[in-house]
Amino acid sequence: MSSSTAPSASTARIGRPLAAWAAWDWGSAAFNHIVTTFVFTVYLTGSVAADEATGSSALATAISVSGILVALVAPVYGQRSDAAGAESGRQRRLGWLTAVIIACTALMALIAPAPSYLWWGLLLLGVGTFAYELAQVEYNAMIYRLAPPGRTGRVSGIGWAAGYVGGIVLLLICFVLFLADSPVVAFEGEGMAVRVVVIVAAVWFAVSTIPVLRMRFPFPPPPGDTEAAVGWAASYKLLFRRLARLYRDDRHLLGFLVSSAIYRDGLTAVFTFGGVLAAGTFGLSPGDVIIFAIVANVVSALGAVLGGWLDDRIGPKIVIMVCLAALVVTAGGMLFASGPTAFWIGGTFLSLFVGPAQACSRSYLARIVPPGREGELFGLYATTGRAVSFLAPAMFALFIAIFGAQRWGILGIGLVLVLGLATLIPVRAVPGNAAAGQAAVRT
To answer: How far apart are CA 131 and CA 133, in angstroms?
Structure first.
């Protein structure tokens, strides 16, 4: 009797904290969708910079510098976060980092459409991106105090889905009110609509962050990492020792970090270059591209929830491998397709499999991390992802240069996904903490 009631009791126990935790993902869509993807970066390169080529080059430089800083700082930051212990306040640290992101987002309203403002806008973008990546370390590590045994995948999937849905809702609100050809609220002056939208995004993120800062975790924290309670310089020495130890003692965990870095870069590229391909290769109008972006996020959100559910039943590795294989097959079909209808069909299938692969990657790592080292290894998770973030864009550009047509960039992204899948196959999950649950051993 007790065994049959335990799952429902655990579900009831985590319901409210899970909603509060996922609210941060919902709110973070303000930064991901408004600032870095659809609105502010487009404004920087198209209206603030002297020309699009100069703006694009400067934007790439700013993002690269921010990525290098994340790669250098994230693992040691996560390591020190573990040493501080969950009881001393992952919520507090998440709150301070989120405050930095919100402040940077709000200050973007000061960026006028003139070249002299470009580097100020890029500075705000770079600092916000850096803070966001560190905040992700704290946020991801909280999953251990939210997920009962066997439910890690579902919890991760709900968080990812909340982020997708939050982006859809906010993008729709901003588009209808301020950014459409005939908006509900019109502003005089170039760029004023975008400058208002970033303020809306900052408020959206601030309000959505309140629940996670006030919630109480349903499960106790893992023990703190006392070995990491050292200064910053000594933290880097400890990091290198632990990487060497990881290579010696747990190559499967190290292998997953490397493999996931590769295929996550491919997953990011699916969305990054999807709009470019939609307009340039398949002939979608700008309005249709925005509509497709909304539909793609809806489908990805549903896929993330479904993937989380499957994760807890058959294990995350199987779900990730099936998704990567499906993405490769779909991309191969789109390589030789043409026309808007083909893109809508192929792009929707791609979106369906991106969400589960992303959600299950976080869950997979959560299942195999040794207790007390959550922040450190999620820091490494962020670092490895940043370390190869050039790979898919480089392959995309390389194959366009070789074959002379934009559509061949699809082949470059597909090869990155194939490489990620190939390096994932030999990885074997060895549960590293008590919350790993029964699903981990199935992979």
So the answer is: 6
User: Structure tokens of 434?
Assistant: 């008590």
Place of tokens 């991801």: 140
| Angle formed at CA 178 by CA 172 and CA 182, multiple of 5 degrees | 100
Helix 251-272 with 391-403: angle, nearest 10 deg: 50
User: What H or E segment, with its residue span, contains residue 18?
Assistant: helix 2-29
* d(C-alpha 133, C-alpha 201), whole Å: 18
The pLDDT of 321-335, averaged and rounded, is 95
Is the CB of residue 34 less than 8 Å from the CB of residue 170? Answer: yes
SS3 436: helix
Alpha-carbon gap, residue 154 to 304, rounded angstroms? 9
| N- to C-terminal Cα separation, the chain | 29
Per the CB < 8 A criterion, the answer to whether 121 and 49 are in contact is no
**What are the φ and ψ backbone dihedral angles of 392, each rounded to 5 degrees?**
-65, -45
Q: How far apart are CA 303 and CA 407, in angstroms?
A: 26
Which positions ≥6 away from 305 have C-beta within 8 Å? 157, 158, 161
What is the residue-wise DSSP string for 145-180?
GTPPTT-HHHHHHHHHHHHHHHHHHHHHHHIIIIIS
Q: Could you tell me the pLDDT band of residue 287, with boundaries at 50, 70 and 90?
A: low
- 123-137, 232-246, 335-349 — which is least confidently predicted? 232-246
| Angle value at C-alpha 305, between 299 and 307, nearest 5 degrees | 95
CB 48 within 8 A of CB 348: no
What residue type is 216 in one-letter code? R
Task: Kindly report, residue by residue over 166-184, the tens digit of the pLDDT.
Answer: 988 998 898 889 887 788 9
Q: State phi, psi for 29 to the nearest 5 degrees.
A: -60, -25
Pair of tokens at residue 185: 């609220």
**Taking the model in full, what pTM does it have?**
0.75
Q: Whose CA is closest to 102, among 210, 179, 163, 28?
A: 28
Token pair 């809306």: residue:
200
Task: Name the burial class of residue 262, with classes exposed (0-12), middle (13-18) and buried (19+) by CB atoms within 10 angstroms of its CB.
Answer: buried
Which residues are CB-neighbours of 420 under 8 A, at least 6 positions away? 259, 260, 262, 263, 264, 265, 266, 324
